[in-house]
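My current task is to audit a protein record that another person submitted. Alongside the sequence sits a line of tokens, each denoting a local backbone shape. Where you disagree with what is written, explain briefly why. This is what I was given:
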Amino acid sequence: MPAPNHSLRSDSGRAPQHTPVLLEEVLKLTQPQSGDTVIDCTLGSGGYAKRFLEATEPTGRLLGLDRDAVAIQLAKTKLGEYQARMILKHGRFGALKSLIGDFPRPDIIVADLGLSSFALDDEQRGFAFQKFGPLDMRMDQTSGKTAAELLNTLELRELERILKNFGEERQAGKIARAIVERRKTKSFSTTQDLVQIVEAVYREVLKAQPGQKIWLKRQIHPATQTFQAFRIAVNDEISELEKFLPQAFEILKPGGRLAIVSFHSLEDRLVKNFFRNQAKICSCPAEQLQCTCDRIPAGKLLNKKPIQPNSAEIQINPRARSAKLRIIQKN
């Protein structure tokens, strides 16, 4: 399937913007120094990368990865002045070790697991329930099945599993059944096709009157968790993160730091548990009967509790409100 030819400019003629989340906190805790090597595993439009390249001047190097080809093009434009000190590659961070090539072992690895604003704001990508567009949701539009394909083909039980496990959706069963019933007469093709199904389910559950607002507490739209669930399923996000974490920690230099910004509880739980396991007194595998690590932890937690955006950052960038930053240093 050929990649869509999306413009890299907004309707106003400006290049799309993305505000990096918890940027100052990431820089403070990773402590980039002149000459350091950095891997930015979720390059986006280059917000983190630019600051790391500035902080590691004049000889520091950066490898930037992203599974979204549009992001690579945007970052090339934004970071053009640093071309001699950076390498940008299109690929999934779950395949980190196969992408690094002969790039030196890094001092710092950073990953912002959130969706870039330029992708979220592009109605042709299908990520946002507020916008009318095709139900795509693929971060890499050169491969994989779209959300519409999953909605139109998966069995009831699998639809319910996705909604329950990836969206933590309380009405998973009802929404899954409504999806199956709807596609008997009309296939899913647009974002509004899915929004209408979810809204109809919640109107029935809440016994809402016609025209009555049905947004739930904290002003979260009923379709939020359903869209999250199918985005995660389409992009195999949980599996990618599970593959990424041990690879990233392995390739870090001793003393190197791994920083992860997550945006929902499924991601944060994985990161928290992985980091805690690396910081245990004994780092030997659980199935190993005799300790061979001299009871030296593999890593040190630099923040026991996740760092979250303050009210000032949330006011400037509301999409940052659910972000959580965790950092570990390799021993």
Observations:
- DSSP finds 13 helices and seven strands in the chain.
- The chain has two domains: 23-112+237-330, 125-235.
